[in-house]
Every structure is written in structure tokens, then in C-alpha cells.
Write a structure and sequence with these properties.
The protein has four helices and eight strands. It has 186 residues and is α+β, with helices and mostly antiparallel strands. The chain binds a DNA duplex (13 and 13 nucleotides) through strand 3, strand 4 and helix 4.
Length: 186
DNA sequence: AATAGGATTTCCT
DNA sequence: GGAAATCCTATTC
């Protein structure tokens, strides 16, 4: 995936990321197929961290498309986003769930569980399975050991309201593969 | 300097 | 279905 792919409207990127592969290469190679994403914008999106302008935390959202924005949620979970961007406006796509394809054993160790469906079926779950932490914040997802590869997608995509956000409004910015059991919530 | 609350997960009943 | 876990950030006094 190149920078141009991410330098577009977050909603379009979120939708097209469904079916692509998230790859993390460290000692072992971990691969998951993206089955669920959400788009977040800026001043026009009350649910977004960037709603009230730039702060220390959300700074990556204002930076170059293709960068990672990782933050800690509820003091416990690392949450992974890809920065997107149209006209330099702050925006990002949250990676909510992937279907484990490769490195299952390592993911099970990281998650301390065995059920495949529970490994990556949520934003906090997939970062734990992949070993993604705030150390990955602001890294470039094009030329680091964490990246996304384009894949043809033949399934059907469902669009819905985002999960877990207050002031989410009526905007339907969540995308997921219809019927896929690795989605956090069908 | 202090405090309120979260783009969640897990465990218990 | 409900609440605890847990800590960092942003906001307020």
C-alpha cells in the first residue's frame, strides 16, 4: 500500500481497507485480513479525538497520511489507527478487527487464549495479538515492519453507526464484512 | 494541581 | 446484562 492510498477521504479508505492484509513482522510474521474499520474526522465529527483541535495525543491525526496513530483506551488497551487525509484535514481510520491468517500461535501467546475467533475480533484485541503498542505511534505504515497490503475483496460490506462513541451522531462510518465471525459486533 | 471519563475487554451472575 | 479493571489525556479550578 502506498501513501496515495491513504491520502484520501477517510470514509473511502475505511471501506477499501476491508479485505486487505495487516502484516507485522518481528521475530515471526503475523498476518490478519481486515474485516472491520471505522472512519474518524475532525472539527465536524464530535466523536473524533481531533474534534477540538490538535493536542499532544491526537497530533498524529494532523500529520501525514499513512502514519500510525496509536493511543491507549481505558488505561488498558492500545488502539491502532491509520492516518488518512484529504486537504490536510485531520482524519484517520480505526482498525477494529482482523481475521487471523498467519502466526496464530504467536497471537495465542500474546492474547493468552486459544479460541481463534477471540484473537483479533476487537480494536484492543487485535493490537494485543499483534504486539502493537504506543511504541508504534507515529511510525510510517509504508516503510516499517508494520504495513498493509492490498487484496481483492469479493465479499459484501455492511455500513453502520460507529461503536462505543458518545456523540456518534447519525453518521454511518463503520464498515465490516457481512457475516464474518471475526467482526467485533455483527 | 486535581479530576473526570474514555474509539474496551473480561469476568461474574 | 452489568460492572470492574486501570491509567493517560484533556479540561478545569
Amino acid at each position: 500500500m502506498n501513501h496515495d492510498f491513504f491520502a484520501r477521504d477517510a470514509k473511502a479508505v475505511a471501506k477499501e481497507l476491508i479485505g486487505c492484509e495487516l502484516i507485522h513482522k518481528e521475530s515471526t510474521k503475523l498476518i490478519g485480513r481486515i474485516v472491520e474499520t471505522e472512519a474518524y474526522y475532525g472539527s465536524d465529527d464530535r466523536a473524533s479525538h481531533a474534534f477540538s483541535g490538535m493536542t499532544d495525543r491526537n497530533k498524529p491525526m494532523f500529520k501525514k497520511p499513512g502514519k500510525a496513530y496509536v493511543y491507549i483506551s481505558y488505561g488498558i488497551h492500545n488502539i491502532l489507527n491509520v492516518v488518512t487525509g484529504l486537504n490536510g484535514n485531520p482524519s484517520a481510520v480505526l482498525l477494529r478487527a482482523v481475521k487471523p491468517l498467519k502466526g496464530l500461535e504467536r497471537m495465542k501467546e500474546n492474547r493468552r487464549i486459544n479460541e481463534k475467533k477471540e484473537l483479533c475480533s476487537g480494536p484492543g484485541k487485535l493490537t494485543e495479538a499483534f504486539g502493537i503498542t504506543k511504541d508504534h505511534n507515529r511510525i510510517d505504515l509504508i516503510d516499517s515492519n508494520l504495513w498493509i497490503e492490498e487484496r481483492e475483496f469479493k465479499g459484501k460490506i455492511v455500513r453502520d453507526k460507529r461503536i462505543g462513541v458518545s456523540n456518534g451522531g447519525k453518521m454511518e462510518l463503520r464498515f465490516y464484512e457481512e457475516g464474518n465471525s471475526h467482526v467485533s459486533r455483527l
